[in-house]
Amino acid sequence: MNPDAILWHHLSMPKILIPTPLRQYAGKQPAVEVKGSTVGEALTGLVSQHPDLRRHLYTDEGKLRAFVNVYLNDEDVRYLQKEATAVQENDHISIVPSIAGGTALSCSF
Amino acid sequence: MAKFTEIAPVALNNDEILRYSRHLIMPEVGMEGQLKLKAAKVLCIGAGGLGSPLALYLGAAGIGTLGIVDFDVVDYTNLQRQIIHATADVGRPKLDSAAEKLKAINPYLNIRKFETRLSSENALELFREFDIIADGTDNFPTRYLVNDACVLTGKPNVYGSIFRFEGQASVFATKEGPCYRCLYPEPPPPGLVPSCAEGGVLGILPGLVGIIQATEAIKLILGKGDPLIGRLLLIDALGMKFRELKLRKNPDCPACGKNPTITKLIDYEQFCGIRGEEAPVEVTTDEIQVEELKQRLDRGDDIYILDVREPHEYDICNLGGHLIPLGELPNRVNELDTSKEIVAHCRSGMRSAKAVNFLRQAGFKKVHNLAGGILAWADRVDPSMPKY
Fold first, then answer.
1. How is B151-184 classified by DSSP, letter by letter?
2. Are B121 and B24 within one domain?
3. What is the ipTM of this complex?
4. Interchain contact B138–A (C-beta under 8 A)
5. What value does the mean pLDDT take over residues B337-363?
6. Which CATH number fits the domain that encloses residue B371?
7. Is B194 in contact with A106 (Cβ distance < 8 A)?
8. Do B226 and B359 reside in the same domain of the chain?
9. B373-380 and B290-298 are packed helices; what angle lies between their axes, rounded to 10 degrees?
10. What is the pTM of this model?
11. How far apart are CA B360 and CA B358, in angstroms?
12. What is the distance of C-alpha B130 from the center of its chain?
C-alpha cells in the first residue's frame, strides 16, 4: 500500500486548564487533555472523564453556569461562537470561575 | 492620555522633594507625576491581606489622601499575611493599627478612617469623595457592591482577589472598559463554590496581588503605562506563571452596558443568597458536645470517630479518628459500619455537619456531629492540643 495514500486523521487534543478550586474534582490535575473539535465537545469530554465536575460547570438543564467563564486561549468564548467555537490542536481552554478571597475565602462546601 | 486628576494646587516642600527623589528623577513620574500622586485620593476597602501591601505602598509612594474602610480587629492568625499589623496589634481595630504604621512611614499622608461595614447605604456617598477605589474585600456580596457603586459614581475599581495560591487582578469600571459584572454577571449559588478546607491561603499571595493593585492605582493616577483595563491577569504563585485573558465590555451588562438596569445599589446579601459566606451551622439533634464525647470515650463506649479533615490537618492535631476527607466520603462510605455509633468531626464543625447530613441520607442512623469540632475539644477538653 502506498504510504502517501494513507491519510492520518488528526484528532484535536486541546488542553483544558483547570482552576484551583475545581482541581479536587478533576483528580487534582491542573490540566486535562481531551478530544474535541469544539469547545463544547472538549467540555463534554472533560465532564465524562471527571463526572464530579459536572455540577460545578453545568446546571441541571445542561447549560454552562453563568459564573463560570470559558476562554479559548485568551478570548472569552461568549464573544466567539460560544460552545461551537472551533478548537485547534495546540489551543488551551481555560475555565475561569469567580473567586472572592481578599484575605481568606470562607468555606462554603 | 486620559487626564486623570487635575493638578490641584498642591505643592511639595523641600522635605517631600527629598523623600520622593527616586520618583522625581524618573521621567515617568517627575515633579508633575508626584504632584498628581499628592493630589490623588484612593479608598482602600479592607486593611487585611490585600489591603496591607496596597496601603503600605500607596502611602510610601506619596498618595495624598488614603481612605481605609475596615471594621475588623487584628486576629493572631492574620499576622501570617497581613503585614501592616504586628503582634502587639492583636485585638486592636485594624484601622488604628494600619493608620499608625502608615503615618510612621509617611507623615505627609492624609489618612481617613472609616470604621464601618461598607453597605448600600453608605457606599455611594463614600466613593464620591475619592478618585480610585481599591477592592481588597473577601466576599462576593461586597465585590458586587463595590463594582456597582464604582459604576454608579464613575470611579475606577482596582480589583484583586486571591484563592490559596492563585490570584486575579484587573481594573474595572472605567468608562470604556468592562466592569466586574461584564465578567461575572452572577455570583455562584450557595454550596457550589468549592471547598478551600476552611480558608487556607499562601501568606505571600495577597502581597503579590496587593502590590499589583497598588501599581495599577499609581499608573492610573500618573496616566502612564498600560493599565489592566480589559485585561484579567491570572497569577499562579506556585508555578510563578502570569497569564492574561481579554475582558470585553459587555454591551448588555446590567451595570455598565448600553441600557443599564442597575440604577441604584441593591441588597447584595440577598443577591448572593448569603453565598460565599459561611452559613450558620444549625443545631440539630445530630450533635454531640465535646464533654459528652470525652465522658463516653473514658467510659469505654465503642464509638467510631470519623475525621473528615484533610491529611495535613491530621498532622497538626487529631483525636486518633479514622481519616476520610469530606471530599472522599461518597467514594469511601463502604468503609463505615452502619451498626456502629459514629461521631464525625472536623476543625470547627462545619464540614462534619455536612458529612453527617450525607451519611444520614445514605441510611446511617447512629451518626452525630461533634459540635465545634476539634477546636472545641482543644478549648474545653484538652488545652494542650494546638489550635489552628
1. HHHT--EEEEEEEBTEEEEEEE--SSS--HHHH-
2. yes
3. 0.77
4. yes
5. 90
6. 3.40.250.10
7. no
8. no
9. 70
10. 0.81
11. 6
12. 22
B346 a catalytic residue: yes
Q: Which residue has the cell 483547570?
A: A18
Distance of CA B374 to the CA centre of its chain: 25
Q: Is residue A2 part of a domain?
A: no
**B-chain residues near A66 (CB < 8 A):** 184-186
Domain that holds residue A90: 10-97
Domain span at residue B352? 287-380
Residue A3 inside a domain? The answer is no
Instruction: Note whether B136 contacts A99, CB cutoff 8 Å.
Output: no
What are the φ/ψ torsions at residue B62 (nearest 5 degrees)? 95, 25
CB contact under 8 A, A19 and B166: yes
Q: How many domains does chain B have?
A: 2
* Tens digits of residue pLDDT in B305-335: 999 998 889 999 999 999 999 888 888 888 9
- Considering the domain architecture, whether residues B254 and B313 belong to the same structural domain is answered as no
Identify whether B61 is part of a domain: yes
Residues 2-41 of B with CB under 8 A from A: none
Mark which residues 321-360 of B lie under 8 Å from A by CB: 326-327, 350-351, 354
Between the alpha carbon of residue B212 and those of residues B4, B99, B158, B216, the distances in Å are 19, 21, 9, 6
Clarify whether residues B247 and B361 are in a common domain.
Answer: no
Looking at the fold, whether B43 and B186 belong to one and the same domain comes out as: yes
